[in-house]
Amino acid sequence: MKRLPFLAAAVALLASTPACAIVGGAEPAAGAISHSVVTIVGSRATFCTGSLIAPSLVLTVAHCVQPGADYKIVRYGADRKPELEDVKSVAIHPGFRMAEMLAHRATADVALLRLVIPASGKIPARLATPRAPLAPGNPFTIAGVGVTIRGDGRSAGIIRAAHLVATGKPGTLQIRLVDPAGHGTQAGLGACTGDSGAPVFEDQSAGSAIIGVVSWSTGPNGSAGCGGLTGVTPLTLYRDWILQTARQWGFAL
């Protein structure tokens, strides 16, 4: 961990970015969800969410860690002052296509970050095991670190969680989540810009486990913004790549 030239820019980003995150979400109770979520900042003023799946291994989305920039993990001390932890390597799934993601179509929006040292104060989350086909109404929990009020960056950096349900025809290519109160037709709970890469948890027999990552969001009725649909890239088709990449880096998941 060390202070780098873009630390000041990262701090300013966390304080002023007019991006939305989990609107209306609440701070999660202590456990796998709250202890695994991390903040990712980039030298090009990018701001995303990731989740620890091994002491020095972070899962996020490919569109958050594109080549040509440096990326760091933000650590908050007891006084809430941010420090940066170094990223040693970035692996982006070779099947990722940015144009598909921007059009809200299914693509391999998955990436891994290898840290120089283990993330302090964090506990890795477990990847979900394959399960029976998903169905509309299945419950999930998302957790991210973006701002919680649209246009108010002062709320950034706090982990917030929201309970959503699957809509449409969820499957191995894409899952679309909505607030069960409004079903995406009116503003409600949901992810937005700062939550890209956020883990999507499902309760399984062994406890909460990551089933996917947040890729995109819309406002109500498909409008621009957030609080409508939350688009998730499920890990089913990419689990082998994650495990293989982790093994190449010396991690056993």
Element-level helix/strand string:
HHEEEEEHEEEEEEEH
Q: How many separate domains?
A: 2
- The backbone outline, from C-alpha atoms, is globular
Q: Indicate the percent of residues in helices.
A: 10-25%
Largest sheet: 6 strands, antiparallel, barrel
Q: Nearest-angstrom radius of gyration? A: 16 Å
Structural class, by secondary structure, is: mainly beta
What share of residues are in beta strands? 25-35%
* CATH architecture annotation of the largest domain: Beta Barrel
The separation of the N and C termini measures: 24 Å
Average pLDDT works out at 85
Short summary:
The chain has helices at 7-16, 32-36, 98-102, 239-248; strands at 37-42, 47-54, 57-60, 71-76, 82-92, 111-115, 139-144, 160-167, 175-178, 199-204, 207-217, 230-234.
Summarize the structure in words.
- The chain is mainly β.
- The chain has 2 domains: 7-18 and 32-124 and 239-248, Trypsin-like serine proteases (Thrombin, subunit H), CATH 2.40.10.10; 139-236, Thrombin, subunit H (Beta Barrel), CATH 2.40.10.10.
- The chain has 4 helices and 12 strands; from the N terminus they run H-H-E-E-E-E-E-H-E-E-E-E-E-E-E-H.
- The chain has helices at 7-16, 32-36, 98-102, 239-248; strands at residues 37-42, 47-54, 57-60, 71-76, 82-92, 111-115, 139-144, 160-167, 175-178, 199-204, 207-217, 230-234.
- The strands form 2 sheets. The protein has a 6-stranded antiparallel barrel with strand order 1-2-3-6-5-4. Strands 7-8-9-12-11-10 form a 6-stranded antiparallel β-barrel.
- Strand 4 and strand 5 form a beta hairpin.
- The protein is globular, with a radius of gyration of 16 Å.
- Residues 1-9 and 11-21 have low confidence and may be disordered.
